[in-house]
Design goal:
5 domains, Immunoglobulin-like, 21 helices, six-stranded mixed beta sheet, single chain, alpha/beta, Chitobiase, domain 2, globular
Length: 894
């Protein structure tokens, strides 16, 4: 853990609030724990206080001398113990003999704690994160207590100590099931009274040298499929072993050689006869489309084509208002390249298509005509910066890739329970406290270390976007015709804001400024309501009956609108979340007064909040957006005309009825369905794959590619439910005439995504499949008939056409993987499928043509090109076309 933040004193000659940094006093009259955690925030705003501050320093210095040596020795002992303590987490079974009474599903795990032979005698506790609620533990040495959210603490039982050289086992029973090694959170903390907590070294993350992926070395391998693959008796999920992957990839077939490599697939592309166009001599841009609107797309043209300036080849770009929005016509012949487009977006997309085709063919391009326009006007990507922060540089990289694949909406999730990630003028605590997680359980300087957070302030998972960062993101997106939707979840999922505003309240109350302190307070101390959110917080919901809550939200919205205005990009849509509100407010005095005045019931307060904020946004000319469950509780008559709803119910759990029902209200309905669009789900059912799995045990590129957004019930033909059971889907709420789905959005929530490199790993390549589905209608999608139901394997869904389309997509992916390699996008490489039959190794890849390597024993890696004779177990992996990265290694045996 990094050193505690320095305490601060104001200098009298620099005005109120100014600080002198790097003074770090000893604890003095404050508790040793507070001092060790860096919790003392002292500000003196007058010369008298400054003078008194030096007197306090002198007193502390005199009293600290006697305690300094023991404290230093104790800290050194704790540091040494944290560095040497053994810690091993093992999943035992997802099907124990019995769960605690009233619990339908549970799992059992073991935490093994090895005490080194030279361990010092310290009264320690271990704080660790586990997203599944702990139901009970079995240990002679430890008790367990949940602090809040996913943060738990193992405390020594009375009279117990850690004995050197011993190994202690904590048998843990948790709620639900545990299917992936990567669900265990890292950075468990070792804590002792009066000392600064330290991360147990054994629980830190590692990095796989071959793949570059994050590893969790302290989590034992999961190898027993019978005990670990299933969490319910009727669960049919099977791990994607190499042998099963081989059969799966073989059934999907060989990639089709492609003549047109453009992705998403154009609506129409033809190759007329004629001479090729030599582009190596550079370009000259002509036409009536402003060059400024095309700069990023022009920059994406291959370097081999020469610069866009005064070259030989005419690149003519003209506007044609008769084309559909974002549509274009691209023509290449021996005389040059011609683009006509409805708008700057269409012209840019034409140039992006040209760049992809040139990457496939080189600088001599055969004649080509592309006539293209998107199926859906909303083609989005949602990135969660709140749970774990991701950098401005990463967002800018994603924006460029969104433009390359014709996605046009970036949904930035900037505020949730675990973090607030955008600087807001006048509310410094939102980022000063709410953007950081550390070991401070009092939460006066940061949030508690949920989700296995590294408590170091400079950790990559901590931080926020400055106002300047956000403006830069807005400008970069606008230059690529991408709209940005900011999102701060509320009234639930608001713990970071609540805790930050409590620190602000305490700071101003200490100055005697009660009016200022209460101006943005988000909770009511007299509210005794007890609740537990979906993520198990008991304090994460704004009080919707306080004027200060709406004053806070108004300030946030106005600040963000000002940032958009300063960037020259008006704020048009604001996402309030509005989901998963956890039964708060029943015992709130303020809410009792409101309910008595309005006649509202406790269950209606959440809808009241959404309707009020939606109206406030409408008065500003801003459309409200939210998740479908929260918006579904509102009275549509009380909502403004412009509403965006993100549908996130599963296909087999009411998603079809919810999507159609909210589209029938005239709302802008965006499919964010987890079965296809939650890219924090694993790619496949495998204990070594990263990602939560509450919505799906596996969302691979094929499943995303096969999605039929225009006929949701038809997806029953291809997609099973969460238990891998084929099930029918009924269209119980048909779409009304004239109503339609507005588009599709991919989601990446970041609870298990701690590194920027993991962001692109989870998104790519399946984001390309989603981009294709958002852009073009699939051949296998049957025409929607209101009320029609579909069964698994329904013959109305043409699976032969699906496989033909997939093979074409796989053929185009060869070019796209090379482009992603050049752009530094560390996309996921699926491990190969493989089997050994009759002493011969056979292997294949998800995308045919991907290089495969194998080895036996300790031999070197060799290129696999065709079946080869082997003996014994064989390791295999795939590699990127540029050879720089490998997939994780899998093993097959005879």
């Amino acid at each position: 853990m990094a050193a505690s933040p320095p305490h601060e004193l104001a200098r009298p000659d620099t005005g109120p609030g100014a600080v002198v940094k790097r003074w770090e006093p000893s604890c003095g009259p404050f508790t040793a724990e507070d001092c060790a955690h860096g919790l003392i925030m002292v500000q003196y705003n007058t010369r008298k206080a400054w003078r008194n501050g030096f007197e306090m320093m002198a007193l502390w210095a005199s009293t600290a001398i006697l305690a300094a040596a023991p404290l230093a020795q104790g800290q050194a002992d704790l540091d040494r113990l944290a560095a040497s303590l053994g810690y091993r987490y093992t999943i035992l079974t997802n099907r124990p003999a019995a769960c605690p009474a009233g619990i339908p599903r549970c799992f059992e795990a073991d935490i093994a704690i090895r005490v080194p032979d030279d361990a010092p005698a310290l009264p320690v506790e271990i704080r660790y994160s586990l997203v599944n609620p702990v139901l009970r533990i079995d240990s002679d040495q430890f008790d367990n207590r949940t602090i809040n959210g996913d943060l738990n603490v193992l405390t020594l039982k009375p009279g117990r100590t850690l004995r050197p050289g011993q190994v202690y086992h904590v048998k843990l029973t948790g709620l639900g099931a545990f299917f992936s090694r990567n669900h265990m959170m890292p950075n468990a903390l070792l804590v002792a009274p009066g000392l600064a907590p330290r991360v147990i070294g054994a629980t830190r993350t590692g990095t796989d040298a071959a793949t570059g992926l994050e590893t969790l070395p302290f989590v034992a391998p999961m190898t027993d499929e019978a005990a670990l693959a299933r969490g319910a008796p009727d669960d049919r999920t099977l791990w994607r072993t190499p042998e099963r992957a081989f059969d799966l990839y073989a059934a999907r077939g060989t990639a089709t050689p492609v003549d047109v490599a453009i992705l998403p697939r154009p609506a129409r592309a033809t190759r007329p006869g004629g001479a090729a166009l030599d582009l190596s001599g550079g370009w000259r841009l002509v036409g009536d489309m402003p060059r400024a609107a095309l700069v990023p797309a022009l920059a994406a043209l291959p370097v081999g084509a020469g610069p866009v300036g005064k070259g030989r080849v005419a690149l003519t770009v003209r506007r044609d208002a008769t084309l559909r929005p974002e549509g274009y016509r691209l023509a290449v012949d021996a005389t040059g390249v011609s683009v006509t487009a409805a708008d700057a977006a269409g012209a840019s997309y034409a140039l992006r298509s040209l760049a992809q085709q040139m990457a496939a063919e080189g600088p001599r391009l055969r004649p080509l005509i592309v006539e293209d326009a998107p199926r859906y006007g909303f083609r989005g990507l949602h990135i969660d910066l709140a749970r774990n922060f991701h950098s401005k540089a990463e967002i800018l990289k994603l924006i460029e890739q969104m433009a390359a694949y014709k996605l046009n909406t970036l949904h930035l999730h900037l505020g949730d329970d675990e973090g607030w990630r955008l600087q807001i003028a006048g509310l410094s605590e939102l980022t000063g406290v709410g953007a950081y997680r550390c070991a401070d359980l009092s939460e006066r300087t940061c949030l508690s270390p949920q989700l296995g957070a590294d408590p170091a302030r400079e950790a990559a998972t901590n931080g926020y976007l400055t106002a300047a960062d956000y403006r830069d993101i807005l400008r970069a997106a606008a230059a690529r015709q991408i709209a940005v939707i900011p999102s701060f979840d509320m009234p639930g999922h608001s713990r970071a804001a609540i805790r930050a505003m409590e620190v602000r309240y305490q700071r101003l109350m200490a100055r005697g400024d009660r009016t200022g302190a209460e101006r943005y307070r988000l909770v009511e101390p007299a509210d005794t309501t007890r609740y537990s959110s979906v993520q198990h917080y008991d304090d994460n919901t704004l009080n919707v009956c306080l004027d200060s809550t709406y004053r806070f939200i108004d300030t946030v919205i106005d600040s963000i609108a000002a940032l958009h205005k300063a960037a020259g990009v008006p704020l048009t849509t604001y996402h309030i979340g509005a989901d998963e509100t956890a039964g708060a407010w029943r015992e709130s005095p303020a809410c009792k007064v409101m309910m008595a005045r309005t006649g509202l019931q406790p269950g209606q307060l959440g809808a009241y909040f959404i309707e009020r904020i939606a109206a406030d946004l409408a008065r500003r000319g801003i459309a409200v957006a939210g998740w479908s469950d929260g918006l579904g509780h509102t009275d549509p008559a009380r909502m403004p005309p412009r509403v965006q709803t993100n549908i996130w119910s599963n296909l087999h759990a009411g998603g079809v009825a919810e999507a159609h029902g909210q589209a029938n209200l005239g709302w802008k309905t965006v499919l964010s369905i987890p079965d296809l669009g939650y890219f924090d789900m694993p790619y496949a059912a495998d204990p070594d794959e990263t990602g939560y799995d509450w919505a799906s045990r596996g969302v691979d590129s094929f499943q995303v590619f096969g999605f039929m957004p225009g006929n949701l019930a038809a997806n029953a033909a291809l997609i099973p439910n969460i238990l891998a059971q084929p099930k029918a889907i009924a269209d119980t709420v048909p779409l009304q005439p004239g109503r339609a789905i507005a588009g599709i959005q991919a989601q990446l929530w970041s609870e298990t995504v701690r590194r920027d490199s993991q962001v692109v790993y989870m998104l790519f390549p399946r984001l390309l499949a989603l981009a294709e589905r958002a852009w073009s209608k699939p051949d296998w999608e049957p025409t929607y008939v209101a009320g029609a139901s579909y069964d698994p394997g329904d013959p109305r869904v043409d699976r032969a056409r699906l496989l033909t389309g997939w093979r074409d997509f796989a053929g185009r992916m060869g070019v796209q993987m090379r482009l992603l390699d050049r752009a530094g996008v560390t996309y996921r490489l699926a491990p190969p499928g493989a089997r050994i039959t009759g002493g011969r190794l056979e292997a294949n890849a998800e995308f045919p043509g991907t290089p495969i390597e194998y080895r036996t024993g300790t031999t070197s890696w060799r290129r696999y090109d065709e079946p080869v004779a082997v003996s014994g177990a064989v390791d295999l992996r795939t590699r990127t076309p540029d050879g720089r990265r490998a997939s994780r290694t899998v093993t097959v045996s005879p």
